[in-house]
Amino acid sequence: MAKKKKKLNFYSTDPNFEWNDEPLEEELLPPQQQRLRVQIDRKKRGGKEVTLVTGFVGPEEDLKALGKKLKASCGVGGSAKDGEIIVQGKQAEKVLELLKKWGYSQTKRSGGN
Prior knowledge:
The protein is α+β, with helices and mostly antiparallel strands. It is 22% helix and 19% strand. The chain has a domain at 31-109: Translation Initiation Factor Eif1, CATH 3.30.780.10. The protein has helices at 60-74, 92-101; strands at residues 37-41, 50-54, 78-81, 84-88, 108-109.
C-alpha cells in the first residue's frame, strides 16, 4: 500500500512569500566527527536480534553506502533508512570494531547487552 503525502497548510502575512517544498540537503560530516551509537535491538522484530547504528549525519546515499559496507563486512543482510543502519544478528562488537577501523573514532556502544 502506497503512503499518501500529506499536504501542509501554511499561512504567511508576507505577500511576496514563495513556498519551497524541496527537502534540505544535509551536509556530510567527516568520519572522525560522526557520533555514532551501536546497540542491539529486539523491538518490533518478533524477538529477532539486530544491530542498530544510529546518529549518522549526512545524505541518505552516504548512509546507504556505509550500511552496504557494514553488511558486506559482517556477511549478513539488513537495511539503511531513516537515519539508521540495521544489521541482522548480534553483531555489535564487530560493527563497533569496523567503524573505529574506518575512522569513526567517536563511535560508542549503547544499551545494556
